[in-house]
Each structure stands twice: as structure tokens, then as C-alpha cells.
Amino acid sequence: MVSWRTPNSHLTAGPGGGPPPQVLRDPGHPPGLSILDERSSDYDARLKLLNRILEAAARSTLREEIPALARVLVDGLQVEGDVGEALVLAAALDLLEEPHVVLLKHLRIHAKPPVEQVEVMIYAYLYGWQVEHVERVLPRFAGIADGLVAVLAGQGLLRDAGHINFPGAVGPAAWAITPLGERCLFLLGGGQSDPGTAPAASADEASGA
Length: 209
Description:
single chain; mainly alpha; Arc Repressor Mutant, subunit A; 2 domains; two-stranded antiparallel ribbon; 10 helices; about 5% strand; elongated; disordered C terminus
């Protein structure tokens, strides 16, 4: 009978009859905790990305958003993937509802409003949309355009391209889509190519001229 107090040497001896492998471990690193040192340095960020993607997918009201989120997750979890960028993209996609996407698509195609809608002619040179111009072209957004712009700008999908300085005053905000906004449209299937690689459109093309 083998006693656990005095185990047989063939069960515990190391190679060549030496001490068992456990004895050779550094006592400062207990075997049970060593796995924590082997965990990837961005493990927490990847776990956060997974949680954010799952939560966004559960809340989504857009059919196109599910495959977009899946693509962000796959790209973010790649060995060479940028987890930080994926987290930003996931957060941006999470806030988008159908009206936000419609507005982003419109501003992507038309860099500025039609000249006939601009009452102060100096504003016609701004490459961006004032809220009142958005409401005229997209009347379904009358009354909520300010909220749509605030949400998109707060997440970095729109930027203020206006604010012309006048003596003693500042001009109105003129909103334009950002590269992050274009990236979201691309992920949702609203772009022809990845904005990170596609050549920029000329001013005339962007304005529909």
C-alpha cells in the first residue's frame, strides 16, 4: 500500500532520479497564480469589446448593424487588431438609429446645401450644413434635427466646419461628416469603399455640382 505521506520515488522523481519538477519552481511564483502572468496585456480591453458588441447587438433596431458589429469584433480580436479603434467603432454604431443613418448618408453625398437655400450668401462657401438647412431638405427631421446633430457630433461622426468669425460675433455652425462617420456608413453597407483607402472626392463631386 502506498502512503500519501511517503510517496514512491517513481511517482515524484524528476528526470534521472532528481527532485520533482515542482521543487524547481521559484517559490516567489506559486504555480496556481502563474497563469495570471501569461494573460494577454490587452485581455481586459478585448473582453470589454466583446461585452460592448453583445450589448449593442441586443439593443440594435437596424438590420445592417448586426453584421457591422460582427465585423468590428472580428477585426478588433485579430492578433494585429486595434482594440481601441474597435471599441470606438462599436460605441458609435451602438448609438445609431435609422434617422441618424439617413442624415449621415445625406451629408456624405452632399457636402453643403443647395445655393438657393442659403439666405446669407457668405454661408454658401461653408462646406457644411446648418440645422435649419437640414430641416428644409429633410422635413421629416423638423424639430429633431438639433438632437440628431448633437448625438452624431458628440460621438465624433460630425464636425463643425463653420463658425466664420465676424467683428464681434461668430458665424453659425455648419456640420460635415467626419472620417469616423464615413467609416460607420461603410460598415453599415452605405459606402462604396473603405474611407481609409478610398480617394477623397473633390469639392464639386461632394456638393453634387
